[in-house]
Amino acid sequence: MTLRIGCIADDFTGGTDVAAAFRRAGLRTALVFGTPDDATALPPDCDAAVVALKSRSTPAGDAVADSLAAQRWLRVKGAAQVYFKYCSTFDSTPQGNIGPVTDALMDAAGATVTLHCPASPPNGRTVYQGHLFVHGQLLSDSPLRHHPLNPMTDSAIVRLLSAQTHHKVALIDWATVRRGVDAVRDAVAAHRQTGVRHIIADALTDDDLAVLGAAAFELPVVAGAAGLAEGLGHAYPAGGPAAAEPLSRGGRAAVLAGSCSARTLEQIAQFYAAGLPSLHLDVLAAATGRDVTGEAMAWYDEQDPDRPVLIYASASPEELAAVQAQLGVNEAAAQVEELLGTLASHLVERGVRQLLVAGGETSGAVTTALGVRAVLVGEEADPGVPWTYAATKNGDLALMLKSGNFGAPDLFTRALAATAEDTE
Fold first, then answer.
1. Which of 32, 27, 31 is nearest to 45 (CA)?
2. Of 43, 410, 417, 423, which Cα lies nearest the Cα of 245?
3. Which of 12, 130, 151, 182 is deepest in the core (most CB within 10 A)?
4. What is the 8-class DSSP label of residue 30?
């Protein structure tokens, strides 16, 4: 089967989110971690392939180079269309990386215009009059304004993207989207005639995103969050029953959390309230050279193997600020990634076969530490939060990579309880 569509995601949990969207659209989907090379293989019979990079917060030049390398690999695998997936909160700085990467992908594909939409209605992200809303709040009024790496203090997507590109940016409003596919195609053509290269589209519902996806079907490069990817995926012929086959999972379970998002903190609190074993990592102690990893594994070895455990470095905004004040933002993040990546390796060596990871940077550290390059995407526990399946040197592994803001408050307990029931 020929690969139908390729996708480049700017972080690992974003890659998981968009891969789940393609699977919901009926496409058998593979997820590849990191820039692929000639030796990187896909699972058989894939309709869609997602390359998940760690390019959201890297220097723009590095993000562009990695994205172009991924685009070349996807072309070799047969993908004629490329989707650039970024965060549904348009997570970026005034310098990028969304604009520079999109421009580079378009240049390489010979594209003259592209359609953007960061809406993801199941996760509370909508776009109206070019402004991004999070659960009914303007982005700039939401908790994302306190993001530790990229605080989002503006909600106007046209203005945000215009600061990141030298090309013209324009809007297709919701009234046009509601008129249907032909109206959107006509609007795209009209904008192209006036020299517009980047078009932001409003979307309030999944039906709006289906319209946009159908209208963008013939564009060489399309960009946005997972919602538009699913709309685009529905424009392709379905991959058949194999795309939705359930995959088995079982064995000892653990959660590793590095995200400091409000939703992840709720999920940690829910896990703790359920009376399940939880351990908070002392990042400052680790920075002084204390063997925090060894202490964590000694704690783990004392736990009941039939109960899932949680090990986390997540912290409240006040606690995070205190750590960053002592270590610096980059060093604090690097310390967390090092801790959780190392712990993931030790846990899998000790027999963990179901691993739930919270946070984009944490997910990148974990998959790198485990040497996981490609996974097959399975069923979702919550919108945008699927189980994936990989082979490791220690055996098969069910891996859930959760964006910090995604999932219901009871996700940790529910997802792992469900897997325990599956093995009974």
1. 27
2. 43
3. 12
4. E
Name the DSSP class of 66: H
Is residue 162 within 8 A of residue 154, CB to CB? The reply is: no
| Parallel, antiparallel or unpaired: strands 168-172 and 48-52 | unpaired
Identify the three-state secondary structure at position 312: strand
Chain mean pLDDT for the chain: 91
Q: How many CB atoms lie within 10 A of CB 60?
A: 19
Tokens at 417, concatenated: 């309880």
Distance CA 403, CA 56 (A): 13
In the chain, % of residues over pLDDT 90: 74
Q: Report which of 203, 96, 89, 98 is spatially closest to residue 145, judged by C-alpha positions.
A: 89
**In angstroms, rounded to a whole number, what is the distance separating the alpha carbons of residues 144 and 138?**
10
Taking the mean position of all CA atoms in its chain, how far away is CA 18? 7
Is 298 exposed, middle or buried, given 0-12, 13-18 or 19+ CB atoms closer than 10 A? exposed
For residue range 8-63, list pLDDT tens digits in order: 999 888 898 999 999 999 999 999 999 999 888 888 889 999 999 989 989 999 99
- Rounded to two decimals, the pTM is 0.81
What average pLDDT score do residues 195-209 get?
98
Q: Which residues, including other chains, have CB under 8 Å from residue 220's CB and lie 6 or more apart?
A: 80, 81, 82, 106, 109, 110, 111
